[in-house]
Amino acid sequence: MKKNPKNLYGTASEQVFYDGRYSFIQAALEAVSQQFALDGASFYEYDEKTELLCLRLRHAFGASFEHEENLRPLSGSSAAAAIKTRQSCAASSAAGRFFYFPFKLDFFDPSGGRNAVARTGLVRLERSPRKRRFSAAEASKAGAWLRSYFKDYYKEEFFSLARRQEKTVSAITELTEVFATALRARDSFRHILAGIQTYFGFDRVRLYLIEEGNRKLKGELSADIQGQIKSISYEEIPLEAGAHRFADIVLGRSTGAFMERYKDCVLYVPLAVQGVTIGLLIVDNLLSQQRIEPAELAMLKSFGGQIALAVDNSRLFDKVEELSLYDELTKLPLRRYFNQRFQEEFYRAERFKQPLALIWADVDYFKEINDTYGHQIGDVVLKEIGRVILSNLRKIDFPCRYGGDEMVILLPQAAGAEAARLAQRLCEEISELRIAVPFSKTRELKVTLSIGISTFPQDASGVEGLLERADDALYWVKSHGRGSIALYSDVAVEKEKEKAAAGGNTDGNS
Question: Does residue 336 contact residue 326 with C-beta atoms inside 8 Å?
């Protein structure tokens, strides 16, 4: 981008500096060309090993451009003398009028480190052979101008470092806000990866978390350069030495040749909270082969603790929320969670014209169990019933501890016959349970269930109606001997028979 040279030289308050040393030097070449009516100005770095002048930047005919050309200054030439003596000088030849200004600059490490890199070279001011030579006065003025301008380079380096630090602080602040934006784990992970991708621009960012119970490193999400975030939950790595390099990194072991080969474009950041590793963040530029700079490495490592804490907090929030949705005793969802899911499944069944069945179960004589054997035995009964229910359901089925000893099970895409088969199986398995009661004469307790079943759309056209019909069927079972199952459709028929029979008896007695 072309700069306005009028803004480039003057007092410190008037300086307009640009990011990067080449931008600064480009501005210097443009400014000096205007200041001294030049046809061109070139910036060369000198390689002492090869004794070559390497052309890096050039400004000519109103345009600035990067250039690569290696020249070997002839012995005794003005360019060679300027490099050797570190003294500026003017020269003329058939090729043109020239002024050579030697320099030595300490560039800050372009990767963001604190080390300075020494560079020597020449700035060559150029005029065509038809134009005037550089007089002694003009050469002195040009030398003073360039010395002053290059002195200001260090100010630019300072401001550039300050801007980079400001950008880092800004990124830290904004990413910290990103990490705190969403508490739920899945949302939070997406925010974290999207934030890292936005501020660093890596080809890919991946997040893996440790499942302590299974001793696995499990993939969570991956974000690419286009900002697309995808699940990588299918990736599961045994947390064992030698199983995979990711596992070795988490376990603190040597990872072999792969990491050494791609160390410049792949970065692994273990995530730890209070000294305990909880996962692994991986960023890479394998597609672009762009080097990951030390400054980015340092910044990501500083983020590592915040990322780990954000991840840990998100998982903890999900766990707390899960506990608030599930009954700790039976491990079944609670009523408020069920009500939400019921609405969703009913809407789906209604929209796609699919069957939906509802099972309402009740533990027979549960109050007597608590009164006779105590609540601890009652809790064991509920726990075992919850276990049996969970072991018999399909993945799409949704059970619930509806209240006390009442259990409700939602069966999407199931008709009455399918629901009856499941209910019968539950009754049979639960009747075979033997709850140990050491302090009783029988030493054990038998349990039975009463179950009522309703179906959509046969029995009801709404959520409340479906619950009422299942409850009616359950009441029928409990009032007719307990320990069995009943479909509401069958109960309705039986009720009609009883009503008819009751009506017939009345007529006969009148």
Answer: no
Question: What domain range is 225 assigned to?
Answer: 185-325
The answer to whether residues 132 and 16 belong to one domain is yes
CB contact at 8 A, 78 and 98: yes
> How confident is the prediction for the chain on average, in pLDDT?
82
Nearest to 207 by CA among 66, 342, 310, 347: 310
- Cα-Cα-Cα-Cα dihedral sign, residues 455, 457, 459, 465: positive
pTM for this structure?
Answer: 0.45
Largest CA distance in the chain: 142
* Structural domains in the chain (count): 3
| Rounded Cα distance, 88 and 120, in Å | 13
Instruction: Quickly state the pLDDT bin for 20 (edges 50, 70, 90).
Output: low
The SS3 call for residue 279 is: strand
In this structure, the answer to whether residues 277 and 342 fall within a common structural domain is no
What would the pLDDT profile of 205-234 be if each residue is shown by its tens digit?
Answer: 999 988 877 789 999 889 998 888 999 988
Closest-CA residue to 59 (of 116, 140, 2) = 2
Position 184 pLDDT exceeds 60: no
